[in-house]
Design goal:
Blueprint: H1 6-16, H2 22-30, H3 43-46, H4 50-66
Helix pairs in contact: 1-2, 2-4
């Protein structure tokens, strides 16, 4: 059920910040379902393929490294 809303959340994020790529917005939408400790991630996140999880984590790493830290 949660995975169903990822696309909707990503679309709304891109409306809020037009500089986001689709991949970045989707990764941000997964943040609430993902945890760096795999046992704390949701079933929806765990059901993704290893490749999909790696792509999300790479996008989140890029965002953490390159986006402003103190956004208003």
């Amino acid at each position: 059920m949660a995975a169903h809303y990822i696309g909707i959340m990503a679309q709304k994020l891109m409306l809020f910040d037009e500089s986001l790529t689709e991949e970045q917005a989707e990764a941000l939408a997964w943040v609430g379902l993902y945890d760096a400790k795999p046992e704390l991630s949701t079933i929806a996140y765990k059901n993704l393929s290893q490749t999909e999880r790696e792509e999300i984590e790479q996008e989140l790493d890029f965002i953490r490294a390159n986006f402003p830290k103190n956004c208003p």
